[in-house]
Write a structure and sequence with these properties.
Blueprint: E1 3-4, H1 15-21, H2 23-26, H3 37-57, E2 64-67, H4 70-87, E3 92-96, H5 101-112, E4 116-120, H6 130-136, E5 141-145, H7 159-169, E6 172-176, H8 188-191, E7 195-199, E8 210-214, H9 240-255, H10 257-276, E9 281-283, E10 294-299, H11 304-313, E11 316-317, H12 333-337, H13 342-346, E12 348-352, H14 359-378, H15 381-387
Parallel strand pairs: 1-11, 3-4, 3-5, 5-6, 6-7
Antiparallel strand pairs: 2-8, 7-8, 9-10, 10-12
Helix pairs in contact: 1-9, 3-9, 4-5, 6-7, 10-14, 11-14
The structure holds pyridoxal-5'-phosphate (PLP).
Pyridoxal-5'-phosphate is lined by residues 69-71, 74, 100, 102, 147, 151, 176, 178-179, 199, 201-202, 210.
Length: 395
C-alpha cells in the first residue's frame, strides 16, 4: 500500500492544472512583455489567470501580485507594511506564536531593524483570542499578521473577527492563508484583510508559484528589483505556465471545497477516533475549528522521527510537523505554544489527507500507527521510566 498523507507539506498537481500549463511551456512560450503576437498571447493568459485568481478570493485583478510562493508573499506583505509604518513612526507589529517560519523569521528580521514585535500566545487548541489582538494594538502598531489556518495542527483562526478589529482600529492586517486557500472558503472582503498570502503547491498547483493579495491603496515594497512586471512590484519575467496552472488549480479547488469537506471530515474524524484509542496519545489542535484534512497527534514515550521512518517502511508518507522542522531536532514551536512539554512535542505525527484519501487508507493508517507506536515504546527508555512510575505521564 502507498498512502500520501502529507498534503499539508505539498500536494500532487491536478491533471487539469498540468494540462493548462503545458501549452505555455512548449508552444506559447513568448515573453509577456514582448509586443509580437506570441508574447501578447502569453500576456493574455497571464491576465486571465490574474482575473480568475482575483475572482476566486473576492479581489480585483490589480490587487493580485504573483510571487514565487507563499514564503515570498509573506515576506513582501510584512516588509511592505513595516516600511510604510516606519515612514509614519510606527514600528510595532502584532503576531502570534504559531505562525509559519516565513512569517516568524521575517518578524525576527524586523526586530533586528529596531521594530518591536508582540507575539500573542494561543490557547490549548491553538486559537488566537481576538480580544488579545485588540488589547495589544497601540498608537504605533503598523501591522497585525495572523494566519488563517495552521499548517501543523490545522486550527482555523477567527480571522473575520480579527480583521474586523484591525479595520476598526485602522491597522493593516495580513493573513498567511497558504493552508486555507482552495481548502476552506476564503474571501478578502469577509476577512477584512489588507494583505493575504497563498501558495499554489498547497492546492494542487505547481511548486514555486504563489500570490499576494494587496488591497488597493496598500503600498508594497519590492523584494526583487528589475523590470516593471507585476505593476512594478515584483521584477522578473513572469512564470506564465506556472501562473496559468495556479489559476486552473485554484478554480478546481474552490469548486471542490464543499464536496471535499463532506468527504474528508468523516475520514479525518474516523482517523482521529482510531488514533485516540492508542494509550497515552492526544490530538493536537481543535477538534472542530480544524482543516478538513488535518490530523495531528502526540504519542508519549516515542520519537517522531523514528515513527516517520517506520511508517515510510509501511508505505505511509507522513510528517512530524512542518516540512521545515522535520530534519531538525528542535520540537515544533507550534506544539510548544499549545502547551505540550518538550518531551511530548518530540513524539508528534501529522497526517494530512487529500482528494485521494479513502476509508481503506484510513483504517490501514490506524492499524499501522498503533503497531509502530507500540513497537517503538517496546525499546524506549523514556517509556520504560514512565511505565515504572519513575516519571509521570502527561497524556
Ligand atoms: C507552505 C506554507 C508556506 C510557504 O509556502 P511556499 O510556497 O512553500 O513558500 C507559508 N505559510 C504556510 C502556512 C504554509 O503552509
Amino acid at each position: 500500500m502507498f498512502i500520501y498523507a502529507d498534503n499539508a507539506a505539498t500536494t500532487k498537481m491536478s491533471p487539469t492544472a498540468v494540462a493548462a500549463m503545458t501549452p505555455y511551456l512548449a508552444e506559447c512560450y513568448g515573453n509577456p512583455s514582448s509586443l509580437y503576437a506570441l508574447g501578447q498571447r502569453a500576456k493574455d493568459a497571464l491576465e486571465n489567470a490574474r482575473e480568475t485568481v482575483a475572482r476566486l478570493i473576492g479581489a480585483e485583478p490589480r490587487e493580485i501580485i504573483f510571487t514565487s510562493g507563499g514564503s515570498e508573499a509573506d515576506n513582501q506583505a510584512i516588509l511592505s507594511a513595516a516600511a510604510e509604518g516606519k515612514k509614519n513612526g510606527k514600528t510595532h507589529v502584532i503576531s502570534d506564536a504559531v505562525e509559519h517560519h516565513a512569517v516568524l523569521h521575517t518578524l525576527k528580521k524586523l526586530e533586528r531593524e529596531g521594530f518591536e514585535v508582540t507575539l500573542l500566545p494561543v490557547d490549548a487548541a491553538g486559537i488566537v483570542d481576538p480580544a488579545a489582538v485588540e488589547a495589544a494594538i497601540r498608537e504605533d502598531t503598523c501591522l497585525v499578521t495572523v494566519m488563517t489556518a495552521n499548517n501543523e495542527i490545522g486550527t482555523i483562526q477567527p480571522i473575520e473577527k480579527i480583521g474586523e478589529i484591525c479595520r476598526r482600529r485602522g491597522v493593516v492586517f495580513h493573513t498567511d492563508a497558504v493552508q486555507a486557500v482552495g481548502h476552506i472558503p476564503v474571501n478578502v472582503g469577509q476577512f477584512k484583510c489588507d494583505l493575504l498570502s497563498a501558495s499554489a503547491h498547497k492546492f494542487h498547483g505547481p511548486k514555486g508559484v504563489g500570490f499576494l493579495y494587496a488591497k488597493r491603496g496598500v503600498r508594497l515594497v519590492n523584494l526583487i528589483e528589475g523590470g516593471a512586471q507585476e505593476r512594478g512590484k515584483r521584477a522578473g519575467t513572469e512564470n506564465v505556465a506556472g501562473i496559468v496552472a495556479t489559476a486552473a488549480a485554484l478554480e478546481e479547488a474552490v469548486a471542490g471545497i464543499d464536496g471535499n469537506a463532506k468527504r474528508l471530515i468523516p475520514l479525518r474524524d474516523r482517523l482521529i477516533a482510531g488514533l485516540s484509542t492508542i494509550p497515552h496519545a492526544a490530538l493536537n489542535g481543535d477538534p472542530v475549528r480544524r482543516l478538513p484534512s488535518n490530523v495531528n497527534f502526540c504519542f508519549e514515550g516515542i520519537e517522531g522521527e523514528s515513527l516517520l521512518l517506520l511508517l515510510d517502511d509501511r508505505g505511509i508518507c507522513a510528517s512530524s510537523g512542518s516540512a521545515c522542522t522535520s530534519g531538525s531536532l528542535d520540537p515544533s514551536h507550534v506544539l510548544l505554544a499549545i502547551g505540550r512539554p518538550h518531551g511530548v512535542a518530540h513524539g508528534s505525527l501529522r497526517l494530512s489527507l487529500g482528494e485521494d484519501s479513502t476509508e481503506e487508507q484510513v483504517e490501514y493508517m490506524i492499524r499501522a500507527v498503533g503497531e509502530v507506536v507500540a513497537y517503538l515504546r517496546g525499546f524506549s527508555p523514556v517509556w520504560r521510566d514512565l511505565v515504572a512510575g519513575k516519571t509521570q505521564f502527561v497524556l
